[in-house]
TrEMBL record:
UniProt xrefs under Pfam families: Guanylate_cyc
Entry similarity comment: Belongs to the adenylyl cyclase class-3 family.
Source organism per UniProt: Svornostia abyssi
Source taxonomy: Bacteria, Bacillati, Actinomycetota, Thermoleophilia, Solirubrobacterales
InterPro entries: A/G_cyclase, Adenylyl/Guanylyl_Cyclase_3/4, Nucleotide_cyclase
Name of protein: Adenylate/guanylate cyclase domain-containing protein
CDD domains: CHD
Domain Guanylate cyclase, chain residue ranges per copy: 1-165
């Protein structure tokens, strides 16, 4: 019955609402995906058990950076998904993930992260909506060891960050070009 109710509530969206990305019961959240750079190549070089150990270590690192404001949602292959009600704690968590992966040493792949912000819907422990899709897509555009964010995430971030504008990009499933920004801590000399 719950499954049918969910189906009917989704189908009850008006076409204009669906196109605008409006979902009933949606709430504003920051969404982050962080993935291991070069994991596919690594999969060709390592036995499955060693590859699994790398993926397990990523989960351990991600679970270590969660807080009252940042929740671990799931793993998706070589990536983790986090969600937060606001952008600043998410940026802190994303940088903590990148730093922790770097601290693992040369044998552990670098991470890259993408952050989106906007209305999303929580269903059955997972999140759905525009910021989820965008964060997922832009993660692959980040360079190893960096964090990129959508324009909306940048607009909702506090003052503790420096931003570099990236060239507008076309992203699969998103109409038009997206404005993206590389985030840095305000006190970071890099």
């Amino acid at each position: 019955m719950l499954h049918l109710r969910d189906i009917f509530s989704t189908e009850a969206l008006l076409p204009d609402d669906r196109e605008a990305g409006l979902l009933p019961e949606a709430r504003p959240v920051a969404v982050c995906f962080a993935d291991l750079v070069g994991f596919t190549r690594l999969g060709e070089e390592l036995p499955a058990s060693e590859l699994g150990a790398v993926a397990d270590r990523l989960v351990q690192i991600a679970e270590h950076v969660v807080s009252d404001e940042v929740r671990f949602v799931k793993t998706i292959g070589d990536a983790v998904m986090l969600v937060s009600p606001s952008v600043d704690p998410m940026l802190d968590a994303a940088f903590a993930l990148v730093d922790a992966a770097d601290a693992e040493g040369e044998e552990f792949p670098q991470l890259r992260a993408g952050i989106g912000y906007g209305g999303a819907l929580n269903r059955h422990g997972d999140w759905f909506g525009r910021p989820v899709n965008r964060a997922s897509r832009i993660t692959a555009l980040a360079r190893p060891g960096t964090v990129v964010a959508t324009a909306s995430a940048r607009e909702h971030a506090g003052d503790g960050w420096r931003w570099s504008s990236l060239p507008p990009r076309r992203v699969k499933g998103v109409s038009g070009e997206m404005r993206l920004y590389r985030a840095r801590r305000a006190d970071d000399a890099k």
